[in-house]
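Minutes, project huddle
Topic: does the predicted pose make sense with D-mannonic acid bound?
PN asked that the exact inputs be recorded in the minutes so nobody has to dig through chat later. Recorded below.
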Amino acid sequence: MQPISATAARHQRLSQEALLKVRAGVERPRYDRSGLGRGIVHLGLGAFHRAHQALYTEAALAQGDTRWGIIGVSLRSPATGNTLQAQDHLYSVTERHGDASHTRIVGAVVASLYAPQALKQVIDAIADPAVSVVTSTVTEKGYSQLPSTTGLDLGDENIRHDLANPERPRSTLGILAAGIRRRPRGAPLSVVCCDNMAGNGDTLRRLLAQFAELSDPNLPRRIEDEIALPNSMVDRIVPAASTASLDLASRLLGVRDEAAVVCEPFTQWVIEDRFAGPRPAWEAGGALLTTDVRPYQAMKLRLLNGTHSAMAYAGQLGGFSSIADVMANPAAAAFARGVMQDLRATVAAPPGYDVDRYCRELLHRFENTALAHLTAQIATDGTQKIPVRWLPALRESCSAGVERPFLERALAMWLHYLRTGRSDCGEVLAISDPGAAALADRLRSAGCDADAARQALGHAAVFGTTPWPAPLAARLAAYLAALANRGAAALLSMPPRQ
Ligand code: CS2
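Predicted holo structure (tokens), as shared on screen:
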């Protein structure tokens, strides 16, 4: 092979052929990609899937079980699929913490489909008996659920469309239902939800069953008999790509990878061992198969995601653009630790698990300056995330008559963020959350802070229908007043009881 200059190579796009030009030291697929089967359909071809489930599958493929090539499906944008197609579906994952990094090229994704343009192929793929696993990362809002009840949102326009046009579905549930309907009988399928929801598999089962009952009288029975929906807890911090992350990956690879993912070294996947048919040996990548995932889910959703959301709103209001920036500010970092401790008090340890050590590791992960994990990214979709991450802990604490000073302040910060849409410096914040307008309207039309707190807690779509205690509303009102008068800094530096 002719040596090529680093500059020329950097402009060459990653592809099967260009693999030969990738720098030494970069790991590459340890199996023959041309012989891969198509055993998995994945819905939601974002960075998280590519840096998480796809890597566990990569490890199973490297063990020689070549059934598990992934057909990646995008539901909302053709961009990732187009990028991957131009690279023979190869992409890189770079794990980074501080100065240390490790880069590999992943070969597990073998095809990509954009559902609105390739609906028939998507449905055929889910119906194919050679596919025995469907995984999904479509974000919390991608399941058309009402966050406070986890029931089907019948007002969701995609659901209404799909119930009227079951053969032309647009929603995750509609597409799954159409694929399952077409599967031959006796071809077991496991659908593994990999989004951050408590009891995510059970929730998806409920939503799918509700949708099926309304769309096809035979479908609920088939789902009951032939489809397994194991719960799973997924964990890896994977910021959205940026020009800087793509440039970094290209420098490390020696070729240009427009689908490169840069993420943290930590990864965890705990899966309920309840599959209907064959599955990849994800244990090869370190997955833990267990009988009960719920304690792991509660621990992760509250301690990692719950603290993340608090840092996101504190960061948006206080002008901290990334999680590492929050951790570098003593008052903001102390606030994050306080929120984590408030949530820690509500978490029961999974059997044999050292939760305090987990908390210490989390804080170390949050300090990772090599990742630009933006608070604006984590702040999105709060009306879906907060009912999962904070409200169960808050509800349990209220029932036990316990105040959670840091968590309650975080809640006030989120409401203040929605109410004003501005940072402490007056910068306009881009709020990306389809459910936010209704809550923000209530907050903005309230006569005073006490009314705003009551209005928010009374917003059943997020806070549920069970009334919240008046003392909580009073504390929230005081925090809202402090935020309005003195900004987020006032709450960050406030001692636990005041
Ligand atoms: C984050 C998660 O964006 C968010 O809401 O809290 O994506 C988080 O980084 C992952 O769940 C970590 O496993």
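Observations noted during the meeting:
- The chain has a mean pLDDT of 96.
- The longest strand covers residues 91-97.
No decisions taken; revisit at the next huddle.
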